[in-house]
Specification:
Elements (H helix, E strand, L loop, with lengths): L6 H9 L6 E7 L7 H7 L15 E6 L3 H14 L4 E5 L4 H5 L10 H14 L6 E8 L5 H12 L3 E8 L10 H10 L4 E4 L5 H11 L3 E3 L2 H5 L3 H8 L20 H15 L7 H15 L7 H4 L5 H19 L3 H4 L1
Parallel strand pairs: 1-2, 2-3, 3-4, 4-5, 5-6, 6-7
Helix pairs in contact: 1-11, 3-5, 5-6, 6-7, 11-12, 11-14
The chain binds flavin mononucleotide.
Length: 332
Amino acid sequence: MEGVTDAPMRQVISECGGLSFCVSEFLRVCGDLFPAKVFYRHVPEFAHNCRTPAGVPVQLQLLGSNEEAMALNAQRAVELGAGAIDLNFGCPAPQVNRNDGGASLLRYPDRLRGIVAAVRKALPPEIPVSAKLRLGWETPEDIFRNAEEAAIGGATWITIHARTKKQGYTPPAYWNYIGEVKKQLNIPVIANGDIWTLDDFRRCRDESQCDHFMIGRSALATPGLAFAIARELGINAKTTTPFQIPSPSENYLDRWIPLLQRFAEVSAPVSQGNLYTTSRIKQWAKMSFLRNQFPWFDQIKLAKTTEELFTILDQQAKNIHDKSTPSQETLH
Ligand SMILES: Cc1cc2nc3c(=O)[nH]c(=O)nc-3n(C[C@H](O)[C@H](O)[C@H](O)COP(=O)(O)O)c2cc1C
């Protein structure tokens, strides 16, 4: 997720377990071939076998509409260490769409196929090339043609965010369309959109008939969800954190604090002063607040430094603890 899942975030979330791979924020290809440093800055994991320190593979996502430039940059990325390329045909940001990128290509299935085919052709066959699609620009039925064109272009798999660009992020996600597409294609289809809980996951699986799932916002809002889903899918998922992850059913503040502290620790080397870490933790809390009623969210908004933020959180955790522990007098 652009502006959210950078390398420190990928590291911490992948430590929570349950992910088979993660996708980078998009790198926008406008025409030129990027120098190596751009790729390394965007996906520092290139230097480590393209995996997070927890061992989860990272896929590079490219966004753009110029076939040749997309192919050249994909080729360069693979030379530098990328293990898989994802192509963004879902971004709804007006600035991106005005410049002929992201979801705007859903209106031109032939061009979409051309981009997939150009990138596919430029890369060794063992490197997966996937396409991330929305259902359409305005019309959800457009997914049938676009998915087919992506497959003809040579996509190894496609991921479908089950909404049109016009629908933005407004619930619900229309997983049933994914199920229809899956029947039509011979390549794997990954279902995405509004999987916030284990129950959502089960309904998505039933409606989409998919075997593969992508979670975006809930990977942050409920960091134990991927692990719980993986277990439900029969995958022997493992966490590499020494502390307990906030699980989908027990999302308590005292479970969050060590996780956020871990993020502060991991992001310290890339943090410019204190601001990066503090603002990222606030952003994370905001995303969690989409689904959880965290009374501490309002409090940390005011924190200016990471130290201040953790002092507030510790105090909040203590208050919650004091309230839930009966005093000696009450016990007598
Ligand atoms: C802040 C934000 C940034 C996003 N950036 C990207 C991106 O760079 N590439 C992409 O394919 N999707 C991006 N998405 C879309 C998500 O990948 C996902 O398709 C969408 O949020 C629906 O899934 P979810 O309900 O699991 O979050 C972004 C979403 C959000 C909220």
